[in-house]
From TrEMBL:
GO terms for molecular function: alpha-tubulin binding; calcium ion binding. The gene is Efhc1. It comes from the Eukaryota. Residues 554-607 are annotated as: Disordered. Its main location: cytoplasm. GO terms for biological process: flagellated sperm motility; mitotic cytokinesis; mitotic spindle organization. It comes from Cricetulus griseus (Chinese hamster). Residues 627-662 form the EF-hand domain. Gene3D superfamilies: 2.30.29.170, EF-hand (1.10.238.10). This is EF-hand domain-containing protein 1. GO terms for cellular component: axonemal A tubule inner sheath; centrosome; mitotic spindle; sperm flagellum; spindle pole. Keywords: Cell projection, Cilium, Cytoplasm, Cytoskeleton, Flagellum, Repeat. The keyword Repressor does not apply. Residues 115-220, 261-381, 438-542 form the DM10 domain. It is found in: Cytoplasm, Cytoskeleton, Flagellum axoneme; Cytoplasm, Cytoskeleton, Microtubule organizing center, Centrosome; Cytoplasm, Cytoskeleton, Spindle pole.
């Protein structure tokens, strides 16, 4: 029987490595395969093993090799059919007897078999940094732990000192979902150089430890080649050494420091920015340190100036005076300017009192310095007695506020309030004058001066209110005159016609007297008569009136003292009325008329009845002259809400009873009967006339 043995030895590697020994064969049949009886077959040149793996459509599949070592074709079955049948008919049990059953293996649960056995994978994930000028993304390294006892996983990020990022346990120990169906990650799903997605983050597994590698290979999982862990670009940038700038020195700075230590020049300067919008003149103190030629600018704060109390405008530093041409684009805000970028620095000789100095774009004017600085300039530069320059500015005179021209609407005092405030307020009133002159009214009878014939017989009642200096005009309605009477002018101040527009002059009490001409908004009125209160007021305030006004009053009183003719006939009594002044009625123009009460004739009382009352009134005046006419009239006016001059009988007798007015004698009853109008109305106007002279 021929024995052929093939002995090969391959190099370590992945299946397809080269062979390091030649094939040894025994070409002579019958010789044992022993040293000395074996020879090398020189015709064999290929000793590699055939590849057992292949990729189809991107998937790894097992391929059965067809060529053996040395290039010989492999046969699937090297036994003949007869030998195979012989082997199939042999029963090992008949030859060797029944095999002995091994003892059953002891059952070990998974939580005991895999206790404290953890698979460790090294991975990383990429995190975007949207708001940063130094980095666009960040690489964060993590460790993925797989616990074999319960198939749970945890992800822990190693803590990096001073990273500013919350690190440590990213995902606590739990079973992690692999898909939406409900499957969980298993150790069979883990391998090197793959991506796994956990809670929306994609982790790249790059390596594992030795125990993990051995466990997975023992379970038949072929691991992919490990990858190199990428580095975080920003972390690597931080590891680079900081660039340092060293300014070369051409002189001995130590000597300058020891010589001028604690010696500082102090200058007082201003920055005048009044030419710009909202600019102002501000004061500063400039310190020049002789020890290192540095400059410092401090602000001088005034009380309640409205600025934040920052002490420094410019920190202590060396100030360049002239820069080189290529230093205009030098990043001064981040890098220190050295002598290579500066042609000349500011020194002590550049700070002179009385000259401007430009520092960082601002022009400072130095107007004074302290005594040490004056002595230093005198010894060093020969400039004694540096003068102090006065930079104080005189305050401009206040701008006089001028009111715009009056437009003619309303009172000028009311219109002027719109120029003083955004929300105008009412003009201030003389409260004392209003309290003293409250309810004091001067009344006058006036005629309208007009070329129209119909206006000659019109009469008006002027009411001058002493509390507010306002005038109102009332025209009593005349029956069948064709003119509607009533209020002709409401309460207002009347300006004299000759007064200027910007400084108006209003009519006062001294302008009203008998015969005076009053111009009211283009209408000319002539004062014809006054009431009794005006006569008393002019007597008590004679200093306010002109001699012409007092003379008119004297003539008025003299005419009043002349006895009136007896009313013999109706025609004789109508003569004063035809002249425009009814002697009994207009004499005094009692206050009920001025308040809008019409004359008895205007109320509908016939003229003969009014004339027949004169005789009873004169007779009744003697016994009732002690009673107050004003109190009785005001009592009746309280009940006369419509100012008609009439009250009902019940109210009339009730008022007379409250005031103790005698109404039971025959003369008074006759007077009441004659003042009765209709069935229930009594004219209290003619009744009150019996109580006054």
């Amino acid at each position: 029987m021929l024995f052929v043995a093939r002995v090969t030895r391959k190099a370590e590697g992945n299946g397809g490595g080269g062979c390091t020994a030649a094939m040894v064969t025994n070409p002579v049949p019958g010789l044992p395969f022993l040293p000395g009886s074996s020879f090398t077959d020189t015709t064999k040149t290929a000793f590699h093993r055939s590849q057992t793996l292949d990729y189809r459509n991107g998937y790894a599949v097992v391929r059965r090799p067809t060529m053996g070592i040395g290039g010989d074709r492999l046969h699937y079955n090297q036994l003949s059919q007869a030998e195979l049948d012989d082997l199939a008919n042999k029963a090992p049990i008949l030859t060797y007897g029944p095999p002995r059953q091994p003892p059953p293996a002891e059952f070990v649960p998974a939580h005991v078999a895999f206790d404290k056995k953890v698979l460790k994978f090294s991975a990383y994930f990429q995190e975007d940094v949207p708001i940063s000028t130094e980095e666009h993304y960040r690489i964060r390294h993590v460790n993925i732990y797989y616990y074999l006892e319960d198939d749970s996983m945890s992800i822990i990020e190693p803590v990096v000192e001073n990273s500013g990022i919350p690190q440590g346990k990213l995902v606590k120990r739990q079973r992690l979902a692999k898909n939406d169906v409900g499957d969980h990650y298993h150790w069979k799903d883990l391998n090197l150089a793959i991506n796994i997605t956990i809670y929306g983050k994609t982790f790249r597994i790059v390596d594992c430890d030795r125990f993990t590698q051995e466990f997975l290979e023992s379970q038949g999982i072929e691991l992919n080649s490990p990858e190199k862990m990428p580095l975080d670009p920003y972390t690597e940038l931080r590891k680079e050494p900081v660039r340092k700038y060293i300014t070369p020195s051409d002189f001995d700075q130590l000597k300058q420091f020891l010589t001028f230590d604690k010696q500082v020049l102090r200058f007082y300067a201003i920055w005048d920015d009044t030419d710009s919008l909202f600019g102002e003149c501000r004061h500063y103190i400039i310190h020049y340190y002789l020890m290192d030629d540095t400059v410092e600018i401090r602000e001088v704060h005034e009380r309640n100036n409205g600025r934040d109390p920052f002490p420094l405008l410019m920190n202590r530093q060396r100030m360049p005076k002239v820069l080189v041409e290529n230093a205009k684009n030098f990043p001064q805000c981040v890098l220190e300017i050295s002598d290579q970028e500066v042609l000349e620095w500011y020194t002590a000789k550049d700070f002179i009192v009385g000259k401007p100095l430009t520092i960082l774009g601002r022009t400072f004017f130095i107007y004074d310095c302290d005594s040490f600085t004056r002595q230093f300039y005198s010894d060093k530069f020969g400039m004694p007695n540096l003068p102090r320059i006065d930079v104080s500015k005189q305050e401009p005179p206040p701008v006089k506020q001028e009111l715009p021209p009056y437009n003619g609407y309303g009172l000028i005092e009311d219109s002027a309030q719109n120029c003083f405030a955004l929300i105008p307020k009412a003009p201030k009133k003389d409260i004392i004058k209003m309290l003293v002159n409250d309810n004091k009214v001067l009344r006058y009878l006036a005629a309208l001066e007009s070329p129209i014939p119909e206006d000659k017989d019109r009469r008006f009642i002027f009411s001058y209110f002493l509390a507010t200096d306002m005038i109102s005009i009332f025209e009593p309605p005349v029956r069948n005159s064709g003119i509607i009477g009533g209020k002709f002018l409401g309460r207002t101040k009347v300006v004299k016609s000759f007064s200027p527009v910007d400084n108006p002059i209003y009519y006062g009490p001294s302008d009203f007297f008998i015969g005076a001409v009053i111009d009211v908004f283009g209408h000319r009125f002539i004062i014809l008569d006054t009431d009794e209160y005006v006569l008393k007021y002019m007597e008590s305030n004679a200093s306010q009136y002109s001699p012409e006004a007092l003379a008119s009053i004297q003539s008025r009183i003299q005419k009043q003292d002349v006895p009136a003719p007896e009313p013999e006939t109706k025609q004789a009594m109508e003569e004063p009325k035809a002249q425009g002044l009814e002697e009994p009625k207009t004499q005094g123009l009692e206050e009920p008329k001025a308040q809008g009460l019409e004359e008895p004739k205007a109320q509908g009382l016939e003229e003969p009845k009014a004339l027949d009352l004169e005789t009873p009134i004169e007779i009744v005046q003697m016994p009732m002259k002690d009673h107050s006419c004003k109190d009785i009239r005001e009592a009746f006016q309280v009940h006369d809400k419509e100012n008609s001059g009439f009250v009902d009988k019940e109210t009339f007798f009730k008022v007379c009873d409250n005031l103790n007015v005698p109404v039971d004698n025959s003369l008074t009853k006759e007077l009441i009967r004659m003042c009765t109008h209709g069935e229930s109305k009594i004219d209290y106007y003619n009744f009150v006339r019996s109580f006054s002279n």
